Amino acid sequence: MRGVDGRGGIDLHQSPAAKAVHLSSQQKKAMTKDLSVGLFEIANCFLEGVGVKKTPDVAMSYLRFAGNMGDLASQEQLGFLLSKGSSGIKKDMKEAAKWYRMAIGQGSTNTFGLAWVWKDKYME
To answer: Which segment of the chain is annotated as a signal peptide (predicted)?
Structure first.
């Protein structure tokens, strides 16, 4: 018996899976949110050494990726970690301020004591 391609195999170019998937903006937004939350959770595993070797630099990479995707929790955590500079994370007040400002811009209510992020010396 011959396959779809006439040679006994399947012609993948004709399969529904090979066609482009068109997502609505609402679907894209939901997928981005889910992905960023997953990245945040992976970052925390590397930060705390849960299931993986504790690796703060890897954790920060995941947090930055999620933060750039718009994940509010990642932005807040980046601001906190960079402003404190502990657990193998280099203190960087300018970058911390950037992440806090991004979080505030998205409606973060965890703003107590963060007036310093608007000072000129912390602006890029």
So the answer is: none
